[in-house]
Amino acid sequence: MEFETKSGVRYYYDNEIGIAFPSHPLMEKMIHNIPLQEEDLSAVSTKEDFLFYSRFLQKLNKIRPKQGVPGPHPLQPEDVKKMVLREGLLQMTLGVTEECNLRCKYCVYSDSYSLMRNPSNDMMDFPTAKKALDWYISLVMEGREYNPVRKPGIGFYGGEPLLNFDLVKKCIHYIKTTYPELDVHYSITTNGTLLNKEKEDFLKEHGFSISISIDGPKDEHDRNRVYPNGRGTFTDIMKNVRRMIAGGYEDCKAICVFDWKSNLSRLDAFFRQPDIPRLFIMTNPSVQGGCVYYDQFSEDDIRNYLLSEEKTFQYYLDHAPYDTARESCLEHLYPIYASRFLYSTSVMIMPESRIIPYSGACILGRKIFVDVHGNFHACERINQSFPIGNVQSGLDFQRIAVMMNEYLEHLDSCGTCRISKLCGYCYNHFAQKGHFDYASGVCKNEENRKKTDFSRAFTLGERYPHLLDMAVNDYYTWLSKVSPTLGD
Amino acid sequence: MYFRLNPECYYIKGDQNGAIYDLIEGDIYALNPKESQTIETCEDNGVVDPKDPFLCELKQRTVGNFYEKKVYIEKLRLGSPIADFQLDRPPVLIRAFLEIDNRCDRSCWYCGCHGVSRSQGCFGCNTWDEDGTPVHAPRWKELIDELHHLNCMSLLIKGGDLTRNWGKTQEILEYANKKFPSIFVIGHKQHFSKETYEYLENKANLILQTDSISDIGNQHQYLLTMDYQKSQEFAGNLPPNVMVDMVSRNFDPLQPDSPLSSKKKMPKTNLERFTHNNKLHPCLAQSITISWNGEVLPCPMMRNYSLGNINDRKLWTFFKNTPDSIQEFWNISLTRLDKCGKCEFRYACTDCRALETAKTGDLKSKVLCNYDPSKGMWQQPAA
Ligand code: SF4
Ligand code: SF4
Ligand code: SF4
Ligand code: SF4
What we know:
- The structure holds 2 protein chains of 2 kinds.
- Chain A is of the alpha/beta class.
- Chain A contains 17 helices and 13 strands.
- Chain B starts with a strand and ends in a 5-residue tail after the last strand.
- Chain B is elongated, with a radius of gyration of 23 Å.
- Chain B is α/β, with parallel strands linked by helices.
- Chain B is 22% helix and 17% strand.
- The relative contact order of chain B is 0.14.
- Chain B contains 10 helices and 14 strands.
- Classes of the chains: A alpha/beta, B alpha/beta.
- Chains A and B meet through strand 3, helix 3, helix 16 and helix 17 of A and loops of B.
- The site of one iron/sulfur cluster (SF4) has 12 residues of chain B, from loops.
């Protein structure tokens, strides 16, 4: 696949080897085995260039993986169990309540998402939480023989988990007294409105890393993050957050959701302020789960956004205000995004064979999300028609094997996909009510999207040769400390 | 004009000089300070002279190219750099040495019980003057299960003369065969009879140690485990599962002019070794040894560095990535040795920690090398 940077340099992306390199029309002809004409040769400046291209391509052929990636094979429950014990179980997240004191407009549990549940008053009770934790910890203990370095992670999620803070406290107390020798990483995702000194002190005492949703300055934030009566939440949240930061709570980080109406420059300026939690992840409202959220945007909204994105990119390129101590939106959108994209898990030649040969899907059971009723799900984002177990009988390896096999069968176009090594898609991208869509239907635009990503990443790299490596190091060094799943 | 190294060619800086590693062809180009400076300019996207003969030669060798505009070169890598930050990833265990016995009637001069006198003694049999109770077959079988759970890729079964308690050897081997496709048995050539050879034929590869061939001269490579072709040449008609490890008394690895310590001949590089050496020790990494009496060691020859005993601990407890676990040894990359850390060859070089520490008593020493990276010069061998 060919692409071009802003400066007009052409590159060719070789999906078998997993890298892109500077190319030339003549080189591309050679790659595609198109017979060369007299004028092709006169187009290259020297004979050395021609020789260089042909030798370089021959060189790459020496490491080209042998044809025929091992095809998907039906996975058996025993294999799945071993893989989960070895590579999974990074985190169990308890959805301690389905209730929320906010009605954010892009929330996946809102009416904007037809396949997802709606908010309810249901709360998880302690017996359910206890059984879930017992299952998780017994698997982690069994799994130590397979992966001795794994540190168990326990997360609390909602709804708004602070509405069931008593349960959070009981869970921590239970783990500390029942499994005193266990070193656990605790985390919580909250809207921040219900934080107070008592809760903060508790979270701090137990080393929680806290993710708070903040979408930027007041008007940006209050556009979507509102109470049921429509009032914005910014002022309440910032009061709490500033107190926490002033109190020295370091493991407090911000998740920023942005859309076609966001103003990137203002978001960027906002997150550069020292009394705002460090930006953890920038993300868009989900497009899965029967989403209609995006219906509200006009063509103009989209055009305006894209223009402003181009402008901020150019600004970044000219100034590279890369702040190694603290990234803001521009770092997230450009160098961090670019390095995540280029260096993602499936890129490059992989030393180990992969369980799922295509897409970015991991083994189900890598993380476990428990809903208020005690059902296990692959993560908090996937719709609830794909349970992978429950608190009564534990993780269902038979079910996981069936689900992974079904998923594999739906990756029908990956074998010929020209960007398969860069693919970050997983179950959630294909999940409908209880079944998966085929990749051939879902991925139509993927190549074009990747061309844009490539162009941006390589434009940055041309200007600042070491920027992307720097971004990976700085961001992930920090991230690995605050999130055992590296933020996914 | 700009000039950039190809994706597969890395520039590595030393204290004085630099080197270019071609990870596909395997060549390493040693550069002088001026050439190193030029390449540093190139890699920072600085402007260069298109007639520079050094750069023109690099182009001819398909190591790099001139470009009219600034380009970005995405480097060829093995795996994802992001994966390094995933602290929960299970350790990768490539080999485990199981020393299931400690007896032998021979008394070779190079045997471990006389001290560590050779590089790569790990691939020889060896016995040791040590106290302790031998680990019995049932525990060895448990350990084989535990290694299997850790996804260990191959077993090297050794320990003096394995034919002395042939019943135990067979029992352990048959059990290991059910779990491991890759098994090596190590012993002296004279330990094995026709019957024992035949028994082993479809069960294990054999690494045979011998010093009976007098004509191997001073060549380092014959100290290593040789490939099948070489072993045929030197040891006659051996079955295809047999390799020969030859030891020569004429060869003193500690002499400054010997190939091992002069490092005049760098081994070829490749993507795997380069990636490995970047973070890990060349041979200690991804390996573990369990001695005849249950001690857990970083390598069969490093007897003073026991991490504990498997009689009172499960094997996984040695892999917790804490300062008292096996990863401490795995992570002694050459970058972390004072001398090698300054050397441009550190991503290609080999190292026998057992021999180094036996000589100096210091885990991080480096004396078996005649290159001085801070002067950028090779020490002249003694006349
Ligand atoms: S076809 Fe879709 S799912 Fe498959 S590799 Fe390509 S982008 Fe990924
Ligand atoms: S044959 Fe092996 S174990 Fe026996 S003395 Fe020689 S080196 Fe030691
Ligand atoms: S032993 Fe160390 S200093 Fe000597 S050549 Fe190798 S890496 Fe360089
Ligand atoms: S240090 Fe390495 S080469 Fe030397 S004996 Fe030990 S494992 Fe073998």
